[in-house]
């Protein structure tokens, strides 16, 4: 067949720019053969060889498509299957709930170090965040709402909180895209709000006073978007706790708190019906995520107040952390009010500085 002819739905050009077919995905793979040979012989597989195997799998994992087979990232599609399966298994019984959540937690600990080392630009964690959001919202709208225990105003309030979270994440990523790219001229402030620009190899941008790279949002967090990051955590925690309370009071026996607030009381019968158990475990999953985000939110509030980045905090001694870093050297600390002002008003100051420099 002529190499210049049109591709059929199962053909594609691989990483070596050679014409290939989906059915040949398991053929002629030297990296996989050598890695498997080392594994069965008890020898360690070098990181370079592991990365080559991952790249080969990513290149050959494709689906038939008009005009040529389309590539799909296996690390990005894992959450699409893991999250629904985790909730389905957890809905069998209370012991399966404990087993399912514990297994997934251990899996995330191991897979995170593996993916960050072998696939630095992985979308696994960002897809996990998106898939969790979509799954929980779909369960709430199509399983919990039909119980007819949720008022319209409560549903609207939850939707507003979710919309606020999505918009904050969008603003975070949008502001990061507008930062100077690696290799551009140096940027900075003079005076009270000067900042240090740190290169991020994952985002390929220069980040002002970089705090950390958030793998769950696939975005760097720095002075330019730290306010949006904190607001996104507030919206996410509020939405998760609110939705879990609405779900639990719908599937469990509720009681009135001060005659105005409904709280769940007895949930011993939720595993008798699939719809009840599935809704229950989704609420438990929401509470777990909310607690983790609450810890992250408290950490962010503390770091901004102290004028520290997450990297600087991790370098502190245990004694300094016990004293909330009040006795530690903090070169970027400008006082409580100015620390928060630099985070909240950073983009306004950035635009004003650029206008002055351009004029």
From TrEMBL:
It catalyses: L-cysteinyl-[protein] + hexadecanoyl-CoA = S-hexadecanoyl-L-cysteinyl-[protein] + CoA. The chain crosses the membrane at residues 72-92, 98-117, 124-145, 151-172, 233-258, 278-308. InterPro entries: Palmitoyltrfase_DHHC, PFA4/ZDH16/20/ERF2-like. Residues 200-314 form the Palmitoyltransferase DHHC domain. Pfam families: DHHC. GO terms for molecular function: protein-cysteine S-palmitoyltransferase activity. Keywords: Acyltransferase, Membrane, Transferase, Transmembrane, Transmembrane helix. It is a multi-pass membrane protein. GO terms for cellular component: membrane. Its EC number is 2.3.1.225. It comes from the Eukaryota. It is found in: Membrane. It is an enzyme of class 2 (transferase). Signal peptide: none annotated. Belongs to the DHHC palmitoyltransferase family. The DHHC domain is required for palmitoyltransferase activity. This is Palmitoyltransferase. It comes from Phyllotreta striolata.
């Amino acid at each position: 067949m002529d190499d210049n002819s049109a591709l059929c739905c199962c053909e594609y050009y691989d990483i070596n720019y050679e014409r290939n077919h989906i059915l040949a995905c398991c053929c002629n793979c030297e990296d996989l053969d050598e890695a498997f040979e080392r594994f069965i012989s008890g020898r360690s597989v070098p990181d370079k060889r592991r990365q080559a195997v991952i790249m080969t799998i990513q290149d050959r994992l494709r689906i038939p498509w008009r005009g040529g087979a389309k590539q799909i990232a296996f690390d990005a599609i894992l959450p699409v299957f893991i999250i629904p399966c985790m909730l389905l298994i957890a809905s069998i019984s209370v012991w399966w709930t404990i087993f399912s959540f514990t297994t997934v937690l251990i899996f995330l600990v191991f897979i995170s170090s593996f993916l960050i080392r072998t696939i630095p630009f992985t979308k696994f964690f960002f897809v996990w965040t998106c898939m969790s959001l979509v799954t929980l919202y779909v369960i709430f709208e199509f399983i919990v709402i039909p119980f007819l225990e949720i008022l319209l105003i409560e549903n609207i309030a939850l939707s507003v909180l979710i919309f606020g979270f999505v918009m904050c994440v969008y603003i975070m990523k949008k502001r990061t895209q507008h930062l100077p790219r690696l290799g551009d001229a140096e940027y900075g402030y003079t005076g009270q709000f000067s900042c240090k620009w740190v290169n991020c190899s994952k985002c390929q941008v220069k980040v002002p006073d970089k705090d950390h790279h958030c793998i769950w949002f696939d975005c760097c967090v720095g002075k330019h978007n730290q306010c949006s990051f904190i607001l996104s955590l507030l919206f996410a925690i509020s939405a998760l706790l609110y939705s879990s309370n609405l779900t639990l009071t719908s599937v469990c026996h509720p009681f009135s708190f001060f005659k105005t607030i409904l709280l769940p009381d007895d949930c011993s019968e939720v595993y008798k019906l699939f719809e009840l158990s599935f809704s229950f475990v989704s609420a438990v999953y929401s509470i777990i995520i909310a607690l983790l985000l609450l810890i992250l939110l408290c950490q962010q509030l503390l770091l901004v107040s102290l004028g520290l980045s997450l990297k600087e905090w991790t370098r502190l001694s245990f004694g300094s952390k016990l004293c909330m870093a009040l006795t530690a050297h903090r070169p970027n600390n400008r006082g409580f009010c100015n620390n928060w002002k630099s985070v909240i008003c950073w983009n306004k100051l950035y635009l004003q500085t650029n206008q002055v420099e351009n004029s």
